[in-house]
Amino acid sequence: MALSPEEASTVGKVISCKAAVIWAVGEAPVIEQIEVAPPEAGEVRIRIAYTSICHSDLHVWKNQNTKGLHPRILGHEAAGIVESVGEGVTDFQQGDHVLPIFMGECKLCAFCTSPKTNICSNFPVNPMRGTRVIDGKSRFSIKGQTLYSCYGSTFSQYTVLEHQSLVKINPAAELDKVLLLSCGASSGLGAVWKTAKMEPKSSVAVFGLGTVGYSVAEGARVAGASRIIGVDINPSKFELGKLSGFTDFVNPNDSERPVEEVIQQLANGGVDYSFECVGNTKLMESAFNSCKPGGSTIVLGVTASRVAKMELTPSSLLAGRSIVGCLYGGWKLSDIPDLVERYQRKVRSSSHNN
Q: Average of pLDDT values for 191-204?
């Protein structure tokens, strides 16, 4: 999916293209013709080849705190091709295949140089920013009016990002598949492999069967889990879940008992690891209480409210249970090319076997 000659000639010029614009909180997006400015120093302009909707996009869409940041363009789970680079950018060039990531990695701050976190202090997750870091301005406009960004603003045919929030990947990778590694799939796999560091033969409960939940199950299956219990109120997700490695399913609506009690019975006193993939504080509590003494709960779900709270009893912690959260599965951006290569090896192996 190389750039066309027409696209290759747009360097340094404003590009007119289509984007899904949100004009006010909660309003349906409108496909509009917009203008995308060239990248400034340290930035990269990319053509979005494929994008998808993540649930956190919906959180931002409905967030009343973003009233002053409209009109705006949402979207962050995507894959694209570099159209041009700004001054000083040496690690990307025109035609590179890339994944935009909703967080950054400057590789210089105390957080980036620490193996304990993937949060960058210079390019943290910030859906409220709405503009670029270098000058506090937007690269989007519509009929002379400022259009605000959000994460990567991938619901546009072209977008501009700091190079610290992009990952260059193998051009042989199918962009319509690996785009999920820019958010959902990586989040689930990393929660198992990077954050939990799950041991073989572990028992697992996964709360919420969407892209992230299925990816958690896949990661647990590859890691050698002995039992993977899926929890969701939508029974149609159970059949698909078998392909990801689920061995059991629990629909909380099918029992009068709390879901944690059902899981405790299924898993002989509780699971070794539980993963909350929805962003619901009550589910976080249930996930924590589903673990056996010494078990660990990993929270991946993003809550709609920054002040949401959950309740845990000190006695549960004294029993050796732990709870930890992770963004993007704990991966740093520099980890992602290897993750894409791991996927590519699986694709090549499957093609060879067929």
A: 97
- For the chain, percent helix, then strand, then coil, each to nearest 5? 30, 25, 45
Give the mean pLDDT of 134-157.
91
Contact, 330 vs 300, CB < 8 A? no
Output the six-digit token pair for 173. 């990778």
The parent domain of residue 189 ranges over: 184-330
Q: Residue 280 has which token pair?
A: 């619901």
DSSP 166: E
> How far is the C-alpha of 177 from the C-alpha of 191, rounded, in Å?
20
Residue 164 in tokens: 């610290």
In a domain, 326, yes or no: yes
CATH number assigned to the domain comprising residue 153: 3.90.180.10
Please tell me which residue in 112, 120, 150, 183 is annotated as part of the active site. Answer: 183
Note whether residue 179 is domain-resident. Answer: no
Active-site hit among 52, 55, 76, 120: 76
Residues 232 and 148 in one domain: no
Adjacency order of strands within the sheet including 158-162: 158-162, 43-52, 77-85, 97-100, 166-168
- Find out whether 330 and 118 touch, Cβ atoms under 8 Å: yes
Is 54 considered catalytic here? yes
- State how far the Cα of 300 lies from the Cα of 125, in Å rounded to an integer: 14
* 91 and 213 within one domain: no
The reply to whether 70 belongs to the active site is: no
Spatial separation of the C-alpha atoms in residues 208 and 190, rounded to whole Å: 16
Output phi, psi for 214, to 5 deg.
Answer: -65, -35
pLDDT given for residue 2 in this prediction: 61
Q: What is the pLDDT of residue 57?
A: 85
Catalytic pick among 52, 56, 215, 296 = 56
75 near 57, Cβ under 8 Å? yes
- What are 52's strand-pairing partners? 77
Structure confidence by residue, pLDDT tens digits, 316-342: 899 999 999 999 999 999 999 999 999
pLDDT score recorded for residue 346: 79
Provide the CATH number for the domain around residue 251.
3.40.50.720
